[in-house]
Write a structure and sequence with these properties.
12 helices; about 25% helix; alpha+beta; Thrombin, subunit H; Pdz3 Domain; single chain; elongated
Length: about 475
């Protein structure tokens, strides 16, 4: 707790009558508490002067009882006479003022219902009709949960860890979530976070009906923290295929701060759960640490609870559309309700690219033949180099060498995919089969300035350059 008295010692004016107690009061100001409200100072006693009040003489109980009975009867009789006179008087005045009322057999209180045509305009008294209560069987959030949970999966991963002291390897289990984003004739495609499946030996997917199937990684993008895994349709029961759905992807660019947000995922590895909050902010730049390496990501912020295991799950709007992929939570005991998700509009192009990748053996993977160095925003501002991947070395006789790429060039795009790190470049090239032509957009320093250039490169294989 902060000490609020530290900077406010002289905020009270001096009182010459209390000079002896001033210093003690200034350094021991009272704090509000329940006990302070109950006990404040020495006890004060109130003294009341005693007066002798003589008791009245007692009257016979029998005499008082008879008097009260006669008084009650007299009051009742008077009330009845007054009420009768008032009723007769009001009736007399009504018929004097409305001579036709007696002929129409009309009552001045409710009116007559003998004549139907006349009584339609009169006040009628009858039984109330049976009403109907409209029951709402489900709320909007319940409807979203019912429609979208079949498109969310739980992911369990097994990876191998090594003991730092004894070097013993042991299996380690992790949990995450995924979103079903596509299906073709052979496989089911699931989007998740890269950190959920990175370095795993085995991936198991649990569907809405609790059935399980093994999955393999189809493509990853570590910089975007996105991955696509696939499940062979032959490994899925027909009842499960009928139960699952493909998620509806929305547009995160159109959402507004304050809109309701619904997070669904495998929180703490216990299975699917749902939390509700709001979109707290858009386009938040967050520096995320991954094994000592910091990456800047532009994310959606929400106060919907995002816990371990929610990573890779869906952040939805009230229409049941995916607006983000849950990825990280700000973990600090001072902070509550700051979760982040990858905007789906930014993720869709990357997911589409990952979905189209082949699962290749090492000898089938493409090889470019460059030594990459990341050019971040800070480095770009400091040295005036365009953001991208700086080529520090070129392997002689490699695909890059044959295409004319040189040391000092900065690669920015591969087949319309923006390249921002060497890891991303390596993952992308490894996902393309050797012998495939790719389009490389790069910046070259010419006559004191960087100019944009494009070249077509035919990828080789790593075996060709060993």
């Amino acid at each position: 707790m902060e000490d609020y008295n530290q900077n406010n010692i002289n905020q009270y004016s001096q009182n010459p009558d209390n000079n002896n107690n001033r210093d003690s009061y200034e350094y021991n100001k009272p704090e509000y508490s329940f006990w302070a409200e109950k006990v404040s100072g020495p006890p004060v006693y109130d003294y009341v002067q005693y007066q002798h009040n003589p008791r009245p003489e007692q009257v016979s109980k029998k005499k008082n009882r008879i008097g009260r009975i006669f008084a009650f009867l007299f009051k009742a009789a008077v009330f009845g006479i007054i009420a009768g006179v008032a009723f007769v008087g009001v009736s007399y005045l009504y018929y004097r003022l409305n001579p036709d009322a007696f002929a129409n057999n009309e009552s001045y209180i409710l009116g007559s219902t003998d004549d139907e045509s006349f009584s339609e305009n009169k006040l009628k008294v009858g039984n109330t009709k049976h009403g109907s209560v409209k029951n709402i069987p489900e709320s909007s959030v319940m409807k979203v949960a019912e429609e979208t949970m079949p498109s969310i999966v739980s992911i369990t991963s097994i990876s191998t860890s090594r003991d730092i002291w004894f070097g013993v390897e042991y299996p380690r289990e992790g949990s995450g979530s995924g979103i079903i984003v596509g299906k073709d004739e052979k496989e089911l495609l699931i989007a998740t976070n890269n950190h959920v499946v990175d370095g795993t030996d085995k991936i198991t997917v649990t569907f809405i009906d609790d059935s399980q199937a093994e999955a393999v990684i189809k493509g990853t993008d570590s910089m975007a923290d996105l991955a696509v895994i696939t499940v062979n349709l032959e490994d899925i029961e027909q009842s499960t295929i009928d139960a699952i759905k493909i998620a509806k992807l929305g547009n995160s660019d159109n959402i507004k701060v304050g809109e309701m947000a619904i997070a669904i995922g495998n929180a703490m590895g216990y299975g699917q759960s749902l939390t509700v909050g709001y979109v707290s902010a858009k386009d938040r730049k967050i520096d995320i640490s991954d094994n000592g390496r910091y990456t800047t990501m532009v994310l959606l912020q929400t106060d919907a609870a995002i816990n371990p295991g929610n990573s890779g799950g869906a952040l939805l709007n009230i229409n049941g559309e995916v607006i983000g992929i849950n990825t990280v939570k700000f973990a600090d005991y001072k902070v509550e309700g700051m979760g982040y998700a990858i905007p789906i509009s930014r993720a869709i192009p990357i997911i589409n690219d990952l979905m189209s990748r082949e699962v290749l053996k090492p000898e089938e993977q493409g090889f470019l033949g460059v030594g990459p160095q990341d050019v971040t925003e800070e480095i770009s501002e400091m040295f005036g180099i365009p953001i991208g991947v700086y080529i520090s070395t070129v392997v002689e006789g490699s695909a890059a060498d044959k295409a004319g790429l040189k040391v000092g060039d900065v690669i920015q795009y591969i087949n319309d995919t923006e390249i921002t790190s060497g890891i991303q470049l390596r993952e992308l090239i490894s996902s393309i089969r050797a012998g495939t032509d790719i389009e490389v957009v790069y910046m070259r320093h010419v006559n004191g300035e960087y100019k944009r250039q494009t070249v077509t490169v035919t990828l080789g294989s790593r075996e060709d350059n060993q």
